[in-house]
Amino acid sequence: MTDETSAPWLDADESQAWNGLLAVVQRAFPEIERDLRTNHDMLAVHYHILVSLSGAPEHTLRLSDLAHTANLSQSRLTHRLRVLVDRGDVEITQHPDDKRAKHARLTEGGLQRLRTVAPAHVATVRRLIFDHLSPAQSRALAGALAPIAASLCDHPEYLNPQHCPPVAAPTDG
Amino acid sequence: MTDETSAPWLDADESQAWNGLLAVVQRAFPEIERDLRTNHDMLAVHYHILVSLSGAPEHTLRLSDLAHTANLSQSRLTHRLRVLVDRGDVEITQHPDDKRAKHARLTEGGLQRLRTVAPAHVATVRRLIFDHLSPAQSRALAGALAPIAASLCDHPEYLNPQHCPPVAAPTDG
DNA sequence: GGCCTAAGCTTGACACGTCAACTATATGCG
DNA sequence: CGCATATAGTTGACGTGTCAAGCTTAGGCC
């Protein structure tokens, strides 16, 4: 085996936590995305974009801010927005001051779709995740993930794509 | 807003926990996969397959068991194995008793590659995840994720693809 | 003003994941 | 035995994600 002093293997707790994360990422999340796709004809990415916009003033965000909020690269956002605009869920307008920038705005139809889908989506998240946790465990999970999430958003130099806090449930205006 | 009694929205703790999971899934994991790709010419899927085999007796597993262990669909496993076999990291042989089944075996070269990559991979996981947690927080994270992981593996009817406990660090034989 | 670099966004090519359909073998049952 | 059904694995098509390269506008500096 490699050098024990310089190779910081994971200890028992860390290893179990890592296995848990893998289970959630590789099983629960795909299932949640499958549910959105098959039962609601909507990609998880689309859902997150709509949620991000629903939580913004005027239901509007600069594209780069939207990318940050939804944890997307700009390229990916562009590709997805093409679809959302075609569907009529989002409208794109020129930024008035900065001719490089654009605004994305959630349409009434988009908000409608989000409101339709959200309860079932939350129910799925509950079924796969939070139904198995006591309130104390949910609290512990939140507490343990908070510093990780903070570091992921506060240290841009670590990451290629974007930063900023993510968003979960829809906020209606 | 929808019916408050029948629509179980997430409470503050759950919502924060969910945001934390999203941050980890949408930021940390992509970064970990990018690290494996660009610095070690290896996909995360490939890594998990090699790890699963390294932990099995004789470094060998039935393909369906391998799929379960690595949280993969059989289809995806087949696609990835094509590459791993071409690279010489894995060998496929017929199952002696069941003519439908096949065995995948980790080769010396594959084990070698795994041993080379693993320390750096663990270091990346540390940097993005566990460096931000106290031992108590790691313990809490493990404790909170355990029942979720258990339910994901114990209730096949919930999921389309496979089940079974996931694997994290390489086990050398 | 004229240049250079950075920011905002788009594009296209390629690789990966998913799903449904398919082949082949095994098992259960009349 | 003969048929139906289930299990093991493969295949190909299509949708999505990623990356590098590109275009346009802003801002800084001489």
Please summarize what this structure is.
2 copies of one chain form a homodimer. With 173 residues, chain A is mainly α. Chain A is built from 6 helices and 3 strands; from the N terminus they run ααβααββαα.
Structure report:
The structure is a homodimer of 173-residue chains. The first copy, chain A, has 173 residues and is mainly alpha-helical. Chain A is 59% helix and 8% strand. Chain A is built from 6 helices and 3 strands, in the order H-H-E-H-H-E-E-H-H. The first copy, chain A, has helices at residues 12-40, 44-54, 63-69, 74-87, 108-128, 135-154; strands at 60-62, 90-94, 102-106. Chain A has a 3-stranded antiparallel sheet with strand order 1-3-2. In chain A, helix 1 (12-40) packs across helix 5. Chain A is globular. Residues 156-173 of chain A have low confidence and may be disordered. The interface between A and B is large, with 70 and 70 residues. The structure holds a DNA duplex (30 and 30 nucleotides).
